[in-house]
Amino acid sequence: MKDQALFDKIDLHLIRVLNTVLTERSVSRAAIRLGMYQPAVSAALKRLRGLAGDPILVRTGAGMVPTDAGLRMIEPSASILRAAGLLFSDAKEFEAATSTITFRLAASDYLDPFFLPQLVAKLKAEAPHAQIEIHPLSAESDYRSQLAQGQVDIVIGNWASPPGDLHMGRLFGDEVVCLVAKEHPAVRRGWDRAAWLESEHIAPSAMHLGAKGVIDEHLDHLGLVRNITVRCPHFGLMPSMVASSLLVMTTGRHYCERFVELLPVKILPCPIEFPRMMYYQLWHERTHASKAAKWLREQVKLVASALRK
What we know:
Helix content is 43%, strand content 21%. With 309 residues, the protein is an alpha/beta fold.
């Protein structure tokens, strides 16, 4: 109860006065630094002396010096002020150039293969002291829970229908096409719906139990099923698998175009019409008003926009 009664008499302003008079070792200089009148600083120091049961600052021939108790108060008072500053630091504008924040994002590798490298380059250029953590989107990851618990700040990927319980920002849309080896029979003779469905398809592993992905969700809506013979958890390796086989990879045109100059592959139109593949960034209400998180989301938008151009 004694400690509680003492705490009730202390406010943050009083701690600021304490630290300032101890570091300035002058009531008048402390008043100037604090933007206060000198009598007000003297009155606050009198209150502090009463609370501490110690003069805190005493006069000598060379000026004023802290007592032993006063010396011990310098670092704890500074620590309290630093902690208080952190409490409401996000209320200020985010200073990317000096921030040491850690950005955490989860991203699908279905994205344009240039997207994450360019995003990381931009973040490091604008916020050189920040840390960046990139988490995978996999069958084992519960991105809703990760967002809610602060394990990630944003999730980037493609969904036919993004979850309605999260905030969403659209990044870009892409035409659905097929990537095949240059020697695939469809390159020479073309294909119709039946031939495409019967071809051997490669598809990414499910994001979670029972998930079908945007391609197979649409086929299911049409009452169709394609012949998937290979499931792969590593989307970035799938074009190489296509290049040396008769497999068909169906995904966004922009993704496929990145590999046309690198591998013996060709882009073919899909004989089944698909809605455009839409990519989004998702975030939780927890970070919706955060200045740092807003800045991060803006960088994601800028990189996505630059890639579209």
